[in-house]
Design goal:
It is a single chain. Helix 4 runs parallel beside helix 5 and helix 10 crosses helix 13. With 412 residues, the chain is an alpha/beta fold. The protein has 18 helices and 14 strands. The two termini are 16 Å apart. An eight-stranded mixed β-sheet has the order 3-4-2-1-5-6-7-8, with helices on both faces. Helices cover 46% and strands 17% of the residues. It has two domains: 222 residues, 3-Layer(aba) Sandwich (Rossmann fold), CATH 3.40.50; 185 residues, Rossmann fold. The chain is globular.
C-alpha cells in the first residue's frame, strides 16, 4: 500500500503530532512493508508559520528510517495583518472568519495542493487541525478520486483555534476521521453528523518504557536522594500545560513532604525561560529541575525516575503522557478536563483533580506521597492498561486496517 502523510511538521521537529505521524510512518514501513511518503514543511518549530525569525530546516527531499520526506517552504510574512483580520472577523462573527483564522494559523505553502494531487498514493492521511494543509489534502484527494483520512487532534476547549465551521465540513467530507479519544469523538459527532469517525489512541512501546534501573541511574546522576519524592511533568513547556498550577501547589506540598522534588522535562525554547523565571520565586527553587529538549532516547529514564507524573492540561485530544507514564509503571494525576477523563478510570489507574486548582493538586500529591502502596497499585493498573490497549502492537493494525479498507473501497 502506498500511503501519503501530509502534516505541518515532522522530525526533527518536536511535538505530539510530529511524534505520532513519525511513529506511524516508520512502523508502516518496517512492519507492514508499505511505501510511505511524508509531505511537510521546513519548520523546526511551528512558530515559523507566523515568525520569520525562526530557523528553517533544509528543504527538498530526503529519507529517514525508510520514510521518504519532502519539505515545502513556508510563507510567513504579513503576520500582523493576518492576525488582526482574523481577530476582528472572529469578534464580529463575520462570514468567512474561520477562513481568515486559517490564513493566520498557516502553514501557507505554495504548490502543496498540486503536489499532493500529483503524488502516487493509494490513500492520503492528513494531520492536524486547525492547520490549513488539512484542506489542501482533502481537496486534492477528492479531485484525484483518492480516499482521504484526517487525524484532527482537535482540542475542543480552544475555541479560537478549533471552533471552525470549515473544519466541521471537512470532517464530514473525509472518507474517514480518526479521533484519538472518546472525548474528541463526542465533541465532533453532533457537529459533524455525516462524519465516519473511528476512535484510535496513540501508541507506546510498553517494553521500551518499562526500565526501572534506568530511572535509578537517572536519579543518581541528578544527585537526588533515594527517598526523594519526584513529581514529573513531561511535555512542551508551553503555558497551557499548566506548570504554573504545579508551581503554585509546591509550597503546600513541601510543607507536608519536605523530600518532594518536581521535574519539568520537554521542549523548551522561550517557554523554558519563562518557566525558569517562575521557579526563581519559589521558596525551595533548588528542588525544581528543568530538563529542556531532551533526546527521545532519554524519555524512558525520565519517566522511570519519577514517583508521580502530573498531566494538567485541558487542551488535549488524547494525552500521550498519561499512557507513556502508565507504560513505565508510574501513577498519574491529571486534570478533570479535556481528554483525560475519557482515558483515565478515576481511582483505578489514576487520580483526577480540579482543573487549574493548585490546592486540589497539592492534596492529591500529598496523598500519593504518603501512600506508596497506592502509588504502586495505580501504576500497576495503568501499566496493564497501556499494554492491553495502547501498545503499538495493538494500535498499528487498527490504523492500517482503516487505511487498507479505504484503499479497497476505492478499487471496487
Amino acid at each position: 500500500m502506498r500511503i501519503l502523510f501530509v502534516t505541518h511538521a515532522y522530525a526533527p521537529s518536536r511535538g505530539g503530532v510530529q511524534w505520532l505521524i513519525q511513529s506511524l510512518a516508520e512502523r508502516l514501513v518496517a512492519q507492514a512493508g508499505d511505501s510511505v511518503t511524508v509531505f511537510t514543511t521546513d519548520a523546526h518549530s511551528c512558530e515559523l508559520f507566523i515568525d520569520s525569525r525562526q530557523p528553517r530546516l533544509p528543504g527538498g527531499e530526503t529519507t529517514l528510517n525508510g520514510v521518504h520526506i519532502r519539505r515545502f517552504r513556508v510563507f510567513n510574512r504579513m503576520t500582523w495583518p493576518r492576525l488582526n483580520a482574523a481577530r476582528v472577523a472572529y469578534k464580529l462573527r463575520l462570514p468567512g472568519q474561520d477562513w481568515l483564522r486559517g490564513l493566520y494559523f498557516g502553514p501557507l505553502i505554495a504548490g502543496l495542493r498540486a503536489a499532493i494531487g500529483g503524488e502516487p498514493a493509494d490513500v492520503i492521511v492528513a494531520a492536524s487541525f486547525p492547520m490549513i494543509h488539512m484542506y489542501d489534502a482533502l481537496t486534492a484527494g477528492r479531485a484525484s478520486r483518492r480516499p482521504v483520512a484526517l487525524i484532527g487532534t482537535v482540542h475542543p476547549t480552544d475555541r479560537w483555534s478549533y471552533d471552525l465551521p470549515r473544519m466541521y465540513r471537512a470532517i464530514d467530507q473525509a472518507n474517514a476521521y480518526i479521533a484519538l479519544s472518546d472525548y474528541e469523538r463526542d465533541y465532533l459527532s453532533p457537529r459533524c453528523p455525516r462524519a465516519r469517525i473511528h476512535v484510535i489512541g496513540a501508541g507506546v512501546d510498553a517494553s521500551v518504557l518499562d526500565v526501572p534501573a534506568a530511572g535509578q541511574d537517572f536519579r543518581r546522576r541528578q544527585g537526588w536522594a533515594e527517598d526523594d519524592l519526584v513529581i514529573a511533568m513531561v511535555g512542551r513547556m508551553t503555558a497551557y500545560k499548566r506548570a504554573d498550577v504545579m508551581l503554585a501547589a509546591m509550597p503546600a506540598i513541601w510543607q507536608a513532604l519536605p523530600n518532594a522534588r518536581v521535574m519539568f522535562a520537554g521542549a523548551g525554547g522561550q517557554d523554558a525561560l519563562r518557566l525558569r523565571r517562575m521557579i526563581a520565586g519559589l521558596p525551595h527553587s533548588e528542588r525544581v529541575t528543568v530538563i529542556p529538549d531532551f533526546e527521545e532516547r532519554d524519555k524512558p529514564a525520565i519517566y522511570a525516575a519519577a514517583d508521580v507524573v502530573a498531566h494538567l492540561s485541558d487542551r488535549e485530544s488524547f494525552g500521550i503522557v498519561i499512557v507513556e507514564s502508565w507504560a513505565a509503571g508510574r501513577p498519574v494525576i491529571a486534570s478533570r478536563a479535556g481528554a483525560s477523563t475519557s482515558v483515565i478510570s478515576e481511582g483505578q489507574d489514576g487520580l483526577l483533580v480540579t482543573y487549574g486548582d493548585p490546592d486540589d493538586l497539592a492534596q492529591a500529591i500529598i496523598r500519593l506521597g504518603a501512600l506508596p502502596e497506592l502509588r504502586r497499585s495505580l501504576g500497576a493498573a495503568g501499566q496493564k492498561k497501556a499494554r492491553r490497549q495502547y501498545d503499538w502492537q495493538v494500535i498499528l493494525p487498527r490504523y492500517r486496517q482503516i487505511f487498507a479498507a479505504l484503499t479497497e473501497a476505492q478499487l471496487r
